[in-house]
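ugh ok so i messed up the first submission bc i forgot one of the chains. this is the corrected input, ALL of the components this time, i swear. 402 residues overall. if the numbers dont match what u have on ur side tell me asap before i send this to the collaborators (the ones from the other lab, u know who)
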Amino acid sequence: MNDRKKILMIVGGGIASYKSLDFIRRLKERNLEVRGILTKAGEHFITPLAVASLTGNNVPTDLFDPENEAHFSHIELARWADLIVVAPATADFMAKAANGLANDLASAIILATTTKVVFAPAMNVRMWENRATQANIERLKTYGYEFIGPTNGSMACGEYGMGRMLESVEMIAEVERRLEPPCERNYRAIVTSGPTREAIDPVRYISNHSSGKQGGEIANALYEKGFEVVFIAGPGSSLPQGGMEIIQVNSADEMLQAATSSLPADVFVSAAAVSDWKIAEYSDHKLKKQNKSQSLDLSFVQNPDILQVISRDVKNRPRLVVGFAAETNHLKVNAAKKLAKKGCDWILGNDIGKESDTMGGDFNEVLFLSRTENDKWPRMSKKEVGARLADRIYQHINRKGT
Ligand code: CTP
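and heres the new structure output, hopefully the right one now
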């Protein structure tokens, strides 16, 4: 059986198209099976013959070519690949993909595939910065498409700035990372996510705005990497894909109970926005208004700090404990304090100040802190944060775990 990984290269039209030829050559050197297709714009820059010579396969260019469709239809091509790389990905091509257009072979494949798709954008800096391009990219990210680059540099047009496609050696590293086989569920991860609800009486509660999206994406990414995942979800939080164990909870006490009884685990990720307080005295009947002037005083007591308990108090502490720090001010200082106080190994700091759309949104800006590192990740989708964190967790656990 042929178990070589299969890459479908879609070459768009731009001066960076020539780099794709070198990229294909390097993919082939790594014993990957490659098929290539060219967009109409791509054909202006490189020829189907060049791509065919390097891949060893014919190069269809037309969705409506009866011979190609009979030989290897666009649906077959969309299913064939383990990974689809669009390089260079032009502003025009990404706009089409973001809007679900499918009026040529390349865009029809993108719409028809369920395979992971990676875009390697290349364009003039002003085109890159244009709000329409950025909006299309944000939308593609929320659909789960991934991006390699672009980077800063001088451009063929003589300008300097963001929009250069990465060099093929850098692209190869990114592609190889995405092709790594998942580990065999030898590692167990617990992820908490979403808000908690602290009941006041049978009909009322206090809670917060967390959507649980980030926790869900982390759980998905760990599961995709091959971790056995226990996902402890606060109310209303997005539930990840099937296959993992899901425990739904309401209060912080229930979340703590679910977390400790899911131990032992290799990793604990505390993405939940746990309510710091609960009602001191829960009323088992609905609190009633007595008269118009009556006010209500509620008193609260602190909830257990789940992250701290798992980091410091349990006998079978996971080898890696990861927390979050949601801060409205002094992100770095406060996140560093939390790392020390709670005793976890890594903290992902989030600025949730006035300008931020992190809470409830699809994007996140993370400050990664460990005892030795301090790394600001660029703004990216919560899905990308999940993938990046899962990669890091896997590298850490795999290095120390065997
Ligand atoms: N956390 C927890 N249990 C709590 C409170 C927080 O496990 N009772 C975890 C969160 O999941 C997160 C980290 O602790 O990983 C930091 O949460 P955050 O809300 O940023 O801070 P707090 O600890 O609540 O502190 P403060 O409200 O003072 O900022």
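quick check: The chain has a mean pLDDT of 91. that seems consistent at least. The pocket of cytidine-5'-triphosphate is lined by residues 252, 270, 272-274, 276, 303, 305-307, 323-326, 338 (CB under 6 Å).
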